[in-house]
Every structure is written in structure tokens, then in C-alpha cells.
Amino acid sequence: EAVVSTQSTGDHPDIQIPGKYHNEAPWLPAQRHLALMPAFKSPSGKLSCIMNCVFTIFKLLFVGASGLTILEGRTDDSSVPGADDLLPVLIYVIIHANPPDLLSTIDYIENFTPRAITGQDQYMLMQFRGAVEFIKSMLNKNPRG
């Protein structure tokens, strides 16, 4: 049930990671969090891997944006990364981490987490699910075979 191979790059026409973030690639710290998911048995443990992955990407995006801002002499909020910056990187990270049983893991988390997923956790899980759905649409557009 692997999602997709690692053939995509940050320049892939479907992903299009903004150039100012290319120095942070390949986002290995975020990939490592996803690689840990199989080690956790509880839905909360698996969810924490996703949260840590997304949070790590945001930290790396802030590093990329702040470095650019400092070089340009800007200190405004125009370079603060948001969802439009997160999603392409998250797609890239998921593709390259290629976590096993990802679709069933997401269903497991959503159906068996003992507490309601709210707030920041809900936002990050929805971003993650959106990235997975996008990858699935990429696969449907270009099926292997």
C-alpha cells in the first residue's frame, strides 16, 4: 500500500515548492518522523509522528523564509510561511518517506484516537490528509504500469 515512489522532485510540475525553500530540501528531519510511524502501535502515537512531521516542516520553512528575509533586509511578515508553502513540501516529504500502510494508518488514527482531534492537531492532520489525497490524484493521473 505504498503511496508512490520517490521519482518526484521539488521542481515537479504538480508539486512546485517555492524556490526560496529549496535549500531546506530534502527535509530529512520531517521524513524521519514519518519513518517512525510503524514503531508506534497506538493511534495517538502514530498521530504524534504526523504532528511532529508537519511541525518540523513548518520550522524548516521558517528557517528558509527568515534566511531569505535577512538577506533581503526585510523584517515584515510577507515571508512568513503558510498553508500554501506547507502543502507542496508536505507532499514531497510524504512521497520520499513513503510510509508503509499510510492510507490504513490515517483511517486507524481517525477512527480510533481516544480523544477528539481538535485545534492544531486537527489542522495538521487535515493538511496531511490533503497531501495524501493530492498524491493519490497524481497517481490516478499517471498510473504506474
Please specify the SSE layout and strand pairing.
Elements: H1 28-35, H2 43-72, H3 83-97, H4 102-112, H5 119-141
Summarize the structure.
The chain is mostly helical. The chain contains 5 helices and no strands. Helix 1 crosses helix 3.
Query: In this structure, how is the largest beta sheet organized?
Result: none
Helix/strand/pairing category: mainly alpha
- How large is the count of helical segments? 5
Counting DSSP E segments of at least 2 residues, the number of strands comes to: 0
Coarse shape: globular
Strand content: under 5%
Secondary-structure element order, N to C: HHHHH
Distance between the termini: 15 Å
Low-confidence stretches: none
Q: Report the radius of gyration as a whole number of Å.
A: 16 Å
Average pLDDT:
82
- Helix fraction, binned, reads 55-70%
